[in-house]
Design brief:
Strand order of the largest sheet: 2-9-12-11-10-13
Distance between the termini: 65 Å
Strand content: 35-45%
Shape: elongated
Helix content: 25-40%
Radius of gyration: 49 Å
Number of domains: 3
Structural class: alpha+beta
Largest sheet: 6 strands, antiparallel, barrel
Number of helices: 4
Mean pLDDT: 88
Low-confidence stretches: none
Length: 370
C-alpha cells in the first residue's frame, strides 16, 4: 500500500512539473521582441566660411652672413681693433695675435733646412769618392781576373780583390741611401716651413665680408685657443629658420610678431632630423640668434564647413554622416582644409550632418550597416 502511494505521488509531481514548463514556455513566446533603444545624435547644418589652415612653429632669427671669427692657431690676443656694434669693411683688420712663438718655430725650421743643405753637400762629396773607388777597384779586378786565368796570380789574391770590390760597392749604395734620406728630410723640412709661414699669416685676422660685430667673446690679452670664437660678425639679409614635420611649401605666408613674412626656401639640410623652412622677413629687426614663435598659413579656402565632431575615421576611410530624408548615410570625404574647430570636405556637403563622439558615431555606423 505504501509503495503504491509513493508511485502515485511521484506521478503527480512529474505531471505538475511538465505543466509548469509548458505554461512558462507559452508565456515567453507571447512576449514582444525587444527593440534596441533609440540612438540620439545631434545634427548641424554646414556653414559657408573661409578656413585658414595654420601650424605653429618655433624658429631662430639670424643673419645669413653670421660668422664666428676664430683663429686657426693658438695665441695671445695682442690687439683687438673693433668693439661690439662696429661696422667693418671686407678685409679690414679685426684681431692681431702674438706670433713670436710661430716666428721662433720658423727660424728653427730655416736653421734645420740650412743644416740639411750642408749635410747633403758633404754627402754628395762622399758619394762621388765612393763611386770613384768602385770604378778603380772594378778596373783592377778586371786585370786580376785576366792574370788569374793566365796563372799569373793565386786564387787567394783574386778573392781578396773581389771582397774589396764588394765592400766598396756596398759603401757606394749606403752613401746613396744616406743622400736620398737627407734629400727627403730636406723636402719635408721645406714643406713644414711653408706650413709654418702660412700659419704665421693666421695671426692677423681680417673681416671676410662687410658686416657688423655683434658680439666679442675674447678681449685683448686673452689666450685664443684654436677654433674658439673671438668675435661674431653678422650682415644682412636676416631670416628665420623653422624646423617642421610636413605641410610646408615655398611661398607660404608666415606671421611673426605682427609682420607678414614668406617661406623662401626649404633647406636640404635637416635640424634634429626635420626639414627646415627658411623664411624671409626684411621688416623684422631682432638680435641675432633670437628664438621666435610663428604662425604659418598652409591653406586659405572658402566653402561649406563642418565641425570636426562630424568626422569619423575607420582605417583609411574618412566618413561624414549626411542626413538623407529620415536617415543618415555615411559619405566618404577628403579634407581640403581645417582649423581647430571646422573643416571643408570634398565633395561639398550642404545637407545636415551628424556630430558626436567617436563612440556615438561608431554606433551610428553599426546600426546603418545592419
Amino acid at each position: 500500500m505504501k509503495k503504491i502511494f509513493t508511485t502515485l505521488l511521484l506521478t503527480i509531481l512529474v505531471a505538475a512539473g511538465i505543466w509548469l514548463v509548458q505554461k512558462r514556455k507559452g508565456q515567453l513566446q507571447n512576449l514582444p521582441t525587444p527593440t534596441p533603444p533609440a540612438l540620439v545624435v545631434e545634427e548641424v547644418q554646414p556653414q559657408k566660411m573661409e578656413i585658414l589652415q595654420t601650424i605653429e612653429l618655433l624658429g631662430n632669427y639670424h643673419s645669413l652672413k653670421s660668422s664666428p671669427i676664430a683663429t686657426k692657431i693658438a695665441g695671445w690676443i695682442e690687439e683687438l681693433k673693433v668693439e661690439e656694434g662696429t661696422w667693418v669693411k671686407k678685409g679690414e683688420l679685426l684681431v692681431r695675435l702674438d706670433k713670436s712663438e710661430i716666428e721662433a718655430q720658423i727660424a728653427a725650421q730655416k736653421a734645420k733646412i740650412a743644416s740639411l743643405t750642408n749635410q747633403i753637400k758633404a754627402q754628395r762629396a762622399q758619394l762621388a769618392a765612393a763611386r770613384l773607388d768602385v770604378e778603380r777597384l772594378l778596373a783592377s779586378l778586371a786585370r786580376d781576373r785576366k792574370l788569374y786565368r793566365a796563372g799569373a796570380i793565386a786564387k787567394e789574391l783574386l778573392e781578396a780583390k773581389e771582397a774589396r770590390y764588394a765592400g766598396a760597392k756596398a759603401k757606394l749604395l749606403a752613401a746613396q741611401a744616406t743622400l736620398d734620406s737627407l734629400q727627403a728630410q730636406l723636402h719635408s723640412a721645406k714643406v713644414a716651413l711653408k706650413s709654418k709661414e702660412r700659419l704665421a699669416t693666421y695671426a692677423t685676422i681680417r673681416a671676410p665680408y662687410r658686416g657688423v660685430v655683434s658680439k666679442i667673446f675674447l678681449r685683448q690679452g686673452a689666450l685664443a685657443p684654436v677654433g674658439r670664437p673671438i668675435l661674431q660678425l653678422i650682415a644682412p639679409p636676416f631670416v628665420v629658420d623653422a624646423p617642421f614635420q610636413r605641410g610646408v611649401q615655398v611661398g607660404m605666408v608666415a606671421e611673426i610678431q605682427g609682420h607678414r613674412c614668406q617661406v623662401a626656401q626649404i633647406l636640404p639640410k635637416a635640424a634634429q632630423g626635420l626639414p627646415v623652412a627658411r623664411i624671409e622677413c626684411p621688416d623684422l629687426a631682432l638680435p641675432d640668434g633670437t628664438p621666435v614663435a610663428l604662425t604659418l598659413i598652409q591653406k586659405r579656402i572658402q566653402g561649406y564647413a563642418l565641425p570636426l565632431q562630424a568626422l569619423y575615421r575607420r582605417g583609411r576611410d574618412t566618413l561624414v554622416f549626411v542626413r538623407r530624408q529620415d536617415r543618415f548615410v555615411p559619405v566618404p570625404v577628403t579634407i581640403l582644409a581645417h582649423n581647430q574647430t571646422h573643416f571643408i570636405p570634398q565633395p561639398t556637403i550642404r545637407a545636415p550632418v551628424a556630430i558626436g563622439s567617436r563612440e556615438k558615431l561608431a554606433q551610428l555606423l553599426l546600426r546603418i550597416e545592419r
